[in-house]
Amino acid sequence: MATIMSKPGPLSFTGTMENLVLKSAAASVRISVKVTSGYGAITVLDERYFPDGDGTVTLHHPGELCEPYARQYGSVTVTATVVELDGNETQTATEDVDMGTVLFGNVDPQTDATTFCQRHFLTILMGPKTTAVGRKECLSAYDASELSVTAYVRDGDSVRTASGALDPINITGKVYDYDVSPGNIRDVLQLSDAQQLLQYTCQSGDRRQTYEVVVEKVPPAPSLAFLNSFGCWEYIHCTGTHKKSSKFTYSTAVIGEKTRNYAIQEQRQLTANTGSLNYAMAEWADDLFRSQQVYLCTGGKMGKEVVVSDVKDEVTNEDDNMPSYEFTWMYAQKLHNVIDTETKRLRVFDGTFDYTFE
Protein backbone atom coordinates (compact mmCIF):
# COMPACT_ATOMS: atom_id res chain seq x y z
CA MET A 1 0.00 0.00 0.00
CA ALA A 2 1.20 3.53 -0.79
CA THR A 3 2.57 5.64 2.04
CA ILE A 4 1.23 9.21 2.22
CA MET A 5 4.17 11.53 2.83
CA SER A 6 2.22 14.81 2.78
CA LYS A 7 -1.23 16.01 1.81
CA PRO A 8 -3.39 19.15 2.09
CA GLY A 9 -4.71 20.10 5.52
CA PRO A 10 -8.36 20.04 6.64
CA LEU A 11 -9.00 23.48 5.06
CA SER A 12 -7.07 25.01 2.16
CA PHE A 13 -7.19 27.92 -0.25
CA THR A 14 -6.88 27.03 -3.92
CA GLY A 15 -3.82 29.26 -4.33
CA THR A 16 -1.79 27.64 -1.54
CA MET A 17 -3.15 24.09 -1.42
CA GLU A 18 -0.35 21.62 -0.58
CA ASN A 19 0.80 18.93 -2.99
CA LEU A 20 -0.18 15.32 -2.51
CA VAL A 21 3.05 13.33 -2.08
CA LEU A 22 3.17 9.55 -1.67
CA LYS A 23 5.67 6.69 -1.90
CA SER A 24 4.93 3.42 -3.61
CA ALA A 25 6.83 0.31 -4.63
CA ALA A 26 4.30 -0.37 -7.40
CA ALA A 27 5.17 -0.18 -11.10
CA SER A 28 2.66 2.64 -11.58
CA VAL A 29 -0.02 4.51 -9.68
CA ARG A 30 -3.38 5.78 -10.92
CA ILE A 31 -4.69 8.84 -9.08
CA SER A 32 -8.31 9.94 -9.36
CA VAL A 33 -9.39 13.23 -7.76
CA LYS A 34 -13.04 13.90 -6.99
CA VAL A 35 -14.54 17.26 -6.00
CA THR A 36 -17.82 17.24 -4.06
CA SER A 37 -20.15 20.19 -3.47
CA GLY A 38 -23.76 20.56 -2.42
CA TYR A 39 -24.66 19.92 -6.05
CA GLY A 40 -22.94 16.54 -6.34
CA ALA A 41 -19.52 15.09 -7.14
CA ILE A 42 -17.35 15.36 -10.23
CA THR A 43 -14.05 13.72 -11.15
CA VAL A 44 -11.52 16.38 -12.13
CA LEU A 45 -8.47 14.15 -12.61
CA ASP A 46 -7.88 10.52 -13.53
CA GLU A 47 -4.26 9.94 -14.52
CA ARG A 48 -1.56 7.30 -14.35
CA TYR A 49 1.79 8.18 -12.75
CA PHE A 50 5.14 6.40 -12.60
CA PRO A 51 7.16 6.68 -9.38
CA ASP A 52 10.61 8.29 -9.62
CA GLY A 53 13.83 6.61 -8.54
CA ASP A 54 13.00 6.56 -4.82
CA GLY A 55 9.36 5.57 -5.39
CA THR A 56 7.89 9.08 -4.95
CA VAL A 57 4.77 10.25 -6.76
CA THR A 58 3.77 13.92 -6.50
CA LEU A 59 0.48 15.51 -7.54
CA HIS A 60 1.47 19.15 -8.06
CA HIS A 61 -0.85 22.15 -7.63
CA PRO A 62 -4.08 20.32 -6.81
CA GLY A 63 -5.68 23.68 -6.03
CA GLU A 64 -5.70 24.51 -9.75
CA LEU A 65 -7.92 21.47 -10.34
CA CYS A 66 -10.39 22.66 -7.69
CA GLU A 67 -10.35 26.39 -8.51
CA PRO A 68 -13.34 26.64 -10.90
CA TYR A 69 -15.53 24.52 -8.62
CA ALA A 70 -14.51 26.30 -5.40
CA ARG A 71 -15.16 29.63 -7.11
CA GLN A 72 -18.64 28.54 -8.20
CA TYR A 73 -19.77 26.62 -5.12
CA GLY A 74 -18.00 28.55 -2.35
CA SER A 75 -16.35 25.51 -0.77
CA VAL A 76 -15.82 21.92 -1.91
CA THR A 77 -14.47 18.74 -0.36
CA VAL A 78 -11.75 16.87 -2.21
CA THR A 79 -10.93 13.15 -2.18
CA ALA A 80 -8.17 11.33 -4.03
CA THR A 81 -8.29 7.62 -4.83
CA VAL A 82 -4.87 6.00 -5.22
CA VAL A 83 -4.72 2.70 -7.12
CA GLU A 84 -1.41 0.83 -7.29
CA LEU A 85 -0.69 -1.30 -10.37
CA ASP A 86 1.95 -3.97 -10.96
CA GLY A 87 3.83 -4.58 -14.19
CA ASN A 88 0.84 -6.44 -15.65
CA GLU A 89 -1.42 -3.47 -14.80
CA THR A 90 -3.20 -5.51 -12.16
CA GLN A 91 -4.50 -3.63 -9.14
CA THR A 92 -2.52 -4.50 -6.03
CA ALA A 93 -3.91 -1.89 -3.58
CA THR A 94 -6.46 0.91 -3.39
CA GLU A 95 -6.61 3.77 -0.90
CA ASP A 96 -8.84 6.83 -0.48
CA VAL A 97 -7.08 10.00 0.67
CA ASP A 98 -9.03 12.83 2.31
CA MET A 99 -7.67 16.11 0.91
CA GLY A 100 -9.92 18.28 3.05
CA THR A 101 -12.16 21.23 2.23
CA VAL A 102 -11.05 23.78 -0.33
CA LEU A 103 -12.02 27.45 -0.56
CA PHE A 104 -11.38 29.67 -3.53
CA GLY A 105 -8.56 32.04 -2.68
CA ASN A 106 -5.72 33.38 -4.83
CA VAL A 107 -3.88 34.56 -1.74
CA ASP A 108 -0.97 33.61 0.47
CA PRO A 109 -2.15 34.43 4.01
CA GLN A 110 1.16 33.25 5.55
CA THR A 111 -0.82 31.08 7.93
CA ASP A 112 -2.99 28.02 7.55
CA ALA A 113 -6.44 28.54 6.04
CA THR A 114 -8.24 27.38 9.19
CA THR A 115 -6.57 30.03 11.35
CA PHE A 116 -7.11 32.74 8.75
CA CYS A 117 -10.83 31.97 8.38
CA GLN A 118 -11.33 31.94 12.13
CA ARG A 119 -9.70 35.34 12.58
CA HIS A 120 -10.55 37.20 9.39
CA PHE A 121 -13.36 37.86 6.97
CA LEU A 122 -12.83 36.85 3.34
CA THR A 123 -11.11 40.06 2.34
CA ILE A 124 -7.54 41.31 2.23
CA LEU A 125 -8.61 44.49 4.07
CA MET A 126 -6.71 44.50 7.37
CA GLY A 127 -7.89 47.78 8.85
CA PRO A 128 -10.84 50.19 9.07
CA LYS A 129 -12.76 51.12 5.92
CA THR A 130 -14.15 54.56 5.23
CA THR A 131 -17.74 54.61 4.02
CA ALA A 132 -20.81 56.85 3.92
CA VAL A 133 -24.58 56.54 4.05
CA GLY A 134 -25.81 55.62 0.58
CA ARG A 135 -22.80 53.47 -0.27
CA LYS A 136 -23.05 49.72 -0.76
CA GLU A 137 -20.83 47.49 1.40
CA CYS A 138 -20.62 43.70 1.61
CA LEU A 139 -18.75 41.38 3.96
CA SER A 140 -18.21 37.64 3.57
CA ALA A 141 -17.03 34.96 5.98
CA TYR A 142 -16.47 31.23 6.01
CA ASP A 143 -18.72 29.22 8.31
CA ALA A 144 -20.15 32.28 10.07
CA SER A 145 -23.92 32.02 10.34
CA GLU A 146 -24.19 34.98 12.73
CA LEU A 147 -22.88 38.53 12.52
CA SER A 148 -23.25 41.12 15.27
CA VAL A 149 -22.79 44.85 14.86
CA THR A 150 -21.86 47.46 17.47
CA ALA A 151 -22.08 51.13 16.52
CA TYR A 152 -21.36 54.60 17.84
CA VAL A 153 -24.29 56.92 17.22
CA ARG A 154 -24.53 60.68 17.68
CA ASP A 155 -27.83 61.47 19.35
CA GLY A 156 -28.18 65.18 19.86
CA ASP A 157 -25.19 66.41 21.86
CA SER A 158 -24.18 62.96 23.09
CA VAL A 159 -22.69 59.82 21.59
CA ARG A 160 -24.07 56.44 22.56
CA THR A 161 -23.60 52.84 21.48
CA ALA A 162 -26.12 50.63 19.75
CA SER A 163 -25.98 46.97 18.82
CA GLY A 164 -27.83 44.50 16.65
CA ALA A 165 -27.47 41.38 14.52
CA LEU A 166 -27.44 40.78 10.79
CA ASP A 167 -28.75 37.83 8.81
CA PRO A 168 -26.87 36.65 5.71
CA ILE A 169 -28.19 37.81 2.36
CA ASN A 170 -26.64 34.87 0.53
CA ILE A 171 -25.06 31.49 1.37
CA THR A 172 -22.79 29.64 -1.07
CA GLY A 173 -21.55 26.39 0.41
CA LYS A 174 -20.23 27.55 3.77
CA VAL A 175 -19.50 31.11 2.65
CA TYR A 176 -21.93 33.63 4.16
CA ASP A 177 -22.46 37.08 2.60
CA TYR A 178 -23.73 40.03 4.65
CA ASP A 179 -25.01 43.45 3.63
CA VAL A 180 -23.08 45.81 5.90
CA SER A 181 -23.99 49.02 4.06
CA PRO A 182 -24.46 52.01 6.40
CA GLY A 183 -28.09 52.31 5.29
CA ASN A 184 -28.76 48.69 6.23
CA ILE A 185 -26.97 49.14 9.56
CA ARG A 186 -29.19 52.14 10.30
CA ASP A 187 -32.27 50.03 9.58
CA VAL A 188 -31.05 47.16 11.78
CA LEU A 189 -30.30 49.54 14.66
CA GLN A 190 -33.61 51.38 14.03
CA LEU A 191 -32.01 54.82 14.01
CA SER A 192 -34.10 57.93 13.43
CA ASP A 193 -33.27 60.61 10.86
CA ALA A 194 -31.96 62.82 13.66
CA GLN A 195 -29.43 60.22 14.80
CA GLN A 196 -26.06 60.10 13.01
CA LEU A 197 -24.15 56.86 12.48
CA LEU A 198 -20.47 57.56 13.25
CA GLN A 199 -18.77 54.17 13.28
CA TYR A 200 -19.71 50.51 13.44
CA THR A 201 -17.90 47.23 13.89
CA CYS A 202 -19.07 43.91 12.50
CA GLN A 203 -18.02 40.83 14.46
CA SER A 204 -18.35 37.09 14.07
CA GLY A 205 -16.30 35.05 16.50
CA ASP A 206 -12.76 36.45 16.40
CA ARG A 207 -13.40 38.25 13.12
CA ARG A 208 -13.79 42.03 13.32
CA GLN A 209 -14.23 44.70 10.66
CA THR A 210 -14.70 48.38 11.46
CA TYR A 211 -16.32 50.99 9.22
CA GLU A 212 -15.86 54.73 9.75
CA VAL A 213 -18.80 56.75 8.44
CA VAL A 214 -18.10 60.15 6.89
CA VAL A 215 -20.49 62.78 5.59
CA GLU A 216 -20.50 62.52 1.81
CA LYS A 217 -20.87 65.83 -0.04
CA VAL A 218 -20.04 64.58 -3.53
CA PRO A 219 -21.30 61.20 -4.84
CA PRO A 220 -18.55 58.72 -5.77
CA ALA A 221 -17.61 58.58 -9.43
CA PRO A 222 -17.66 55.72 -10.01
CA SER A 223 -18.74 53.10 -7.48
CA LEU A 224 -17.53 49.66 -8.57
CA ALA A 225 -18.42 46.13 -7.50
CA PHE A 226 -15.69 43.54 -7.97
CA LEU A 227 -14.89 39.94 -7.11
CA ASN A 228 -12.00 39.93 -4.65
CA SER A 229 -9.19 37.40 -4.21
CA PHE A 230 -11.59 35.08 -2.36
CA GLY A 231 -14.27 35.20 -5.05
CA CYS A 232 -16.51 37.41 -2.87
CA TRP A 233 -18.13 40.70 -3.86
CA GLU A 234 -16.72 43.94 -2.49
CA TYR A 235 -17.30 47.59 -3.35
CA ILE A 236 -14.95 50.50 -3.89
CA HIS A 237 -16.21 54.09 -4.08
CA CYS A 238 -13.93 56.50 -5.92
CA THR A 239 -14.02 60.07 -4.60
CA GLY A 240 -11.18 61.63 -6.59
CA THR A 241 -11.15 63.34 -9.98
CA HIS A 242 -13.19 61.66 -12.71
CA LYS A 243 -12.44 62.33 -16.39
CA LYS A 244 -13.98 61.17 -19.65
CA SER A 245 -12.48 60.93 -23.12
CA SER A 246 -13.92 59.41 -26.29
CA LYS A 247 -12.06 58.20 -29.33
CA PHE A 248 -13.90 57.82 -32.64
CA THR A 249 -12.70 55.65 -35.51
CA TYR A 250 -14.20 56.50 -38.90
CA SER A 251 -14.42 54.27 -41.97
CA THR A 252 -14.90 56.59 -44.94
CA ALA A 253 -15.68 56.03 -48.61
CA VAL A 254 -17.13 57.87 -51.58
CA ILE A 255 -20.63 56.50 -52.11
CA GLY A 256 -22.89 57.89 -54.82
CA GLU A 257 -20.49 60.78 -55.51
CA LYS A 258 -20.56 61.80 -51.84
CA THR A 259 -18.11 61.12 -49.06
CA ARG A 260 -19.73 59.10 -46.32
CA ASN A 261 -18.69 57.77 -42.92
CA TYR A 262 -20.20 54.35 -43.44
CA ALA A 263 -19.00 53.02 -40.07
CA ILE A 264 -18.24 54.90 -36.86
CA GLN A 265 -16.83 53.14 -33.82
CA GLU A 266 -16.67 54.87 -30.45
CA GLN A 267 -14.33 53.90 -27.65
CA ARG A 268 -15.15 55.74 -24.45
CA GLN A 269 -12.48 55.73 -21.76
CA LEU A 270 -12.98 57.15 -18.30
CA THR A 271 -10.28 57.90 -15.77
CA ALA A 272 -11.11 57.52 -12.09
CA ASN A 273 -9.21 58.27 -8.91
CA THR A 274 -9.83 56.51 -5.61
CA GLY A 275 -9.28 59.67 -3.59
CA SER A 276 -7.16 59.63 -0.45
CA LEU A 277 -7.00 56.23 1.26
CA ASN A 278 -5.63 55.02 4.56
CA TYR A 279 -2.81 52.48 4.22
CA ALA A 280 -5.05 49.49 4.91
CA MET A 281 -7.45 50.55 2.17
CA ALA A 282 -4.55 51.29 -0.18
CA GLU A 283 -3.37 47.68 0.14
CA TRP A 284 -6.95 46.45 -0.22
CA ALA A 285 -7.63 48.53 -3.35
CA ASP A 286 -5.11 46.38 -5.25
CA ASP A 287 -7.76 43.66 -5.25
CA LEU A 288 -9.81 45.75 -7.68
CA PHE A 289 -6.95 45.65 -10.16
CA ARG A 290 -6.57 41.87 -9.77
CA SER A 291 -10.26 41.22 -10.35
CA GLN A 292 -11.50 39.66 -13.57
CA GLN A 293 -15.10 40.73 -12.91
CA VAL A 294 -15.87 44.41 -12.30
CA TYR A 295 -19.27 46.11 -12.57
CA LEU A 296 -20.58 49.62 -12.16
CA CYS A 297 -22.66 50.03 -9.02
CA THR A 298 -25.54 52.51 -9.24
CA GLY A 299 -28.11 52.97 -6.52
CA GLY A 300 -26.72 49.95 -4.68
CA LYS A 301 -27.29 47.68 -7.70
CA MET A 302 -24.82 46.19 -10.15
CA GLY A 303 -25.00 47.63 -13.63
CA LYS A 304 -22.81 47.39 -16.70
CA GLU A 305 -19.68 45.26 -16.73
CA VAL A 306 -16.50 47.30 -17.12
CA VAL A 307 -12.81 46.65 -17.78
CA VAL A 308 -10.05 48.28 -15.70
CA SER A 309 -6.64 49.15 -17.16
CA ASP A 310 -3.74 51.64 -17.04
CA VAL A 311 -3.39 51.55 -13.26
CA LYS A 312 -1.14 54.06 -11.49
CA ASP A 313 -0.60 52.25 -8.20
CA GLU A 314 2.16 53.56 -5.97
CA VAL A 315 2.54 53.95 -2.20
CA THR A 316 5.60 55.33 -0.41
CA ASN A 317 6.68 55.49 3.23
CA GLU A 318 7.06 59.26 3.23
CA ASP A 319 5.48 61.05 6.17
CA ASP A 320 3.22 63.20 4.01
CA ASN A 321 2.21 60.45 1.60
CA MET A 322 -1.56 60.15 1.08
CA PRO A 323 -2.15 57.01 -1.02
CA SER A 324 -4.50 57.36 -3.97
CA TYR A 325 -4.72 55.36 -7.18
CA GLU A 326 -5.68 56.44 -10.67
CA PHE A 327 -6.95 54.02 -13.29
CA THR A 328 -8.78 53.88 -16.58
CA TRP A 329 -12.03 52.02 -17.08
CA MET A 330 -14.28 51.38 -20.05
CA TYR A 331 -17.48 49.51 -20.79
CA ALA A 332 -16.95 45.84 -21.57
CA GLN A 333 -19.66 45.85 -24.24
CA LYS A 334 -18.93 46.94 -27.80
CA LEU A 335 -21.47 49.78 -27.81
CA HIS A 336 -20.08 52.63 -25.69
CA ASN A 337 -22.86 55.15 -26.28
CA VAL A 338 -24.37 54.40 -22.86
CA ILE A 339 -26.94 56.86 -21.51
CA ASP A 340 -26.53 57.45 -17.78
CA THR A 341 -30.00 58.17 -16.39
CA GLU A 342 -29.19 57.41 -12.74
CA THR A 343 -26.23 59.59 -11.76
CA LYS A 344 -25.32 63.22 -12.26
CA ARG A 345 -23.32 64.15 -15.32
CA LEU A 346 -19.77 65.41 -14.98
CA ARG A 347 -19.70 69.17 -14.34
CA VAL A 348 -16.90 71.71 -14.44
CA PHE A 349 -17.94 73.04 -11.04
CA ASP A 350 -18.86 70.02 -8.97
CA GLY A 351 -20.00 69.74 -5.37
CA THR A 352 -16.46 70.06 -4.01
CA PHE A 353 -16.11 73.51 -5.57
CA ASP A 354 -19.59 74.64 -4.53
CA TYR A 355 -18.95 74.03 -0.83
CA THR A 356 -15.95 76.41 -0.76
CA PHE A 357 -18.42 79.34 -0.77
CA GLU A 358 -20.20 78.32 2.43
Quick take:
This protein is mainly beta and 358 residues long. The chain has helices at 62-73, 113-119, 182-189, 279-290, 351-354, and strands spanning 3-6, 11-13, 20-23, 28-37, 40-49, 56-59, 75-85, 91-103, 129-132, 138-142, 147-155, 158-166, 170-172, 175-179, 196-204, 207-214, 223-227, 233-237, 243-255, 258-273, 294-298, 301-312, 326-331. Mean pLDDT is 90; it is low at 345-349 and 351-358.
Topology overview:
Layout: E1 3-6, E2 11-13, E3 20-23, E4 28-37, E5 40-49, E6 56-59, H1 62-73, E7 75-85, E8 91-103, H2 113-119, E9 129-132, E10 138-142, E11 147-155, E12 158-166, E13 170-172, E14 175-179, H3 182-189, E15 196-204, E16 207-214, E17 223-227, E18 233-237, E19 243-255, E20 258-273, H4 279-290, E21 294-298, E22 301-312, E23 326-331, H5 351-354
Parallel strand pairs: 2-8, 9-16
Antiparallel strand pairs: 1-3, 3-6, 4-5, 4-7, 7-8, 10-14, 11-12, 11-15, 13-14, 15-16, 17-18, 17-21, 19-20, 20-23, 21-22, 22-23
